[in-house]
Specification:
9 strands, 18% strand, alpha+beta, single chain, 292 residues, elongated, 5-stranded antiparallel beta sheet
C-alpha cells in the first residue's frame, strides 16, 4: 500500500463521516476509482466509525423524576382536611339579674346569623379546595379524572413549507497529470452551474512561479486562461459558466508554469506541465437527494 499524506487520510475519514460537500465527495470517489489502496483506506474508516454508532445506547429517565414533580406540586401526600379555628367560649361573668325591661331577642338573632355565616364559609372553603385539587389533577394527572372532566386535547395545525430541492446535476472530473503519472491537480466541474474547483494533489510550488489553468478547444481561436491556481489546497472558480456545456465537456485542460501572478500577456508563455480531459464521474441519478 502506498503512503498517503495526512490530508489524504483526513479526506477519507471525512468521506466516511459524510461531512464532505458534493465536490469533495466527487474527488474522493474519483481517487477511489483510480486507486484501490485509497478505496481500501476509505472502507477501513467506514468500518471503524460505524462501530462507534453501535456503542451508543438509549438513555431512559430515572424513576424518581415523577416523584420530584409530585413533591414540587404538593401531590406527594394526601391533602390534610380543612380545620376551622374553634370559637373561644364567652368569658364568664358574674350572674347579675337582668333588668326586667331588657330584650334578649337581638342576641339570639345574632348567634343564629353567626352560625349561618360560619357554615357558608366552611362550604365555600371546601369548594375552593376541591377546585384547586381538580386543577392540579387536570394539569399533572388528567387520566385520573372521569371522561367528562378531562380537558379536551387541542389540535393545532402547523403548515410546514418544505424548501424546494434543486435538481441534482452531473459531476465531471479531470485528472491533470503528466505522462499518466500521479495526478498533480484534480479538476471538478458541476454540470449545472459549470463552476469548477481545482484541488492540489501532488504538485509542488515553484519559487517565483505560478501554475495557471487553460481551456483548450477547437471551437476557440486560442487557449483561454481560467486563472491562476491558488496556493491553497482548493481553488474554486466560476469562469467556466461563460462557455457552453459542449465546449466545457470536450475541451482539454492544461496547466502551464508562468511568472508569479500568471501570464502578463493573456497568452501562455511557460511550458505545459500537466493536461487532462473531463470525464463524467457521478451521473445525476447517483447523487443522493438532501434529507428532508
Amino acid at each position: 500500500m502506498m503512503a498517503y499524506s495526512e490530508d489524504h487520510i483526513a479526506l477519507a475519514a471525512e468521506y466516511a463521516l459524510g461531512t464532505l460537500d458534493a465536490d469533495e465527495r466527487a474527488q474522493v470517489e474519483t481517487m477511489m476509482a483510480v486507486d484501490n489502496d485509497f478505496a481500501a483506506m476509505v472502507e477501513a474508516w467506514q468500518q471503524k466509525l460505524g462501530a462507534l454508532n453501535q456503542m451508543v445506547g438509549s438513555v431512559e429517565p430515572r424513576s424518581e423524576v415523577w416523584d420530584r414533580i409530585k413533591a414540587a406540586t404538593g401531590l406527594a401526600e394526601p391533602q390534610a382536611p380543612l380545620v376551622l379555628p374553634k370559637t373561644p367560649p364567652p368569658a364568664a361573668t358574674e350572674a347579675v339579674a337582668p333588668p326586667a325591661a331588657v330584650d334578649t331577642s337581638n342576641v339570639i338573632r345574632f348567634s343564629a346569623q353567626a352560625r349561618r355565616w360560619r357554615n357558608v364559609a366552611t362550604f365555600t372553603t371546601a369548594i375552593a379546595a376541591a377546585l384547586v385539587a381538580m386543577i392540579a389533577v387536570q394539569a399533572y394527572r388528567p387520566e385520573l379524572l372521569p371522561d367528562g372532566l378531562r380537558p379536551k386535547p387541542r389540535v393545532q395545525v402547523v403548515e410546514v413549507k418544505t424548501p424546494s430541492v434543486p435538481a441534482a446535476s452531473a459531476q465531471y472530473v479531470a485528472l491533470l497529470q503528466k505522462d499518466s503519472g500521479s495526478p498533480a491537480f484534480i479538476l471538478t466541474v458541476d454540470g449545472a452551474t459549470r463552476n469548477f474547483t481545482v484541488r492540489r494533489v501532488a504538485a509542488t510550488p515553484e519559487p517565483g512561479k505560478s501554475y495557471e489553468l487553460w481551456l483548450v478547444s477547437d471551437k476557440l481561436q486560442r487557449p483561454r486562461s481560467l486563472g491562476v491556481i491558488g496556493g491553497n489546497d482548493f481553488t474554486p472558480r466560476p469562469v467556466l459558466s461563460a462557455y457552453d456545456p459542449d465546449t466545457v465537456n470536450k475541451a482539454t485542460y492544461a496547466v502551464t508554469l508562468e511568472p508569479e501572478g500568471g501570464s502578463p500577456t493573456g497568452v501562455a508563455t511557460g511550458p505545459i506541465v500537466y493536461t487532462g480531459k473531463l470525464i463524467e464521474a457521478v451521473p445525476p441519478a447517483a447523487i443522493p437527494s438532501p434529507a428532508r
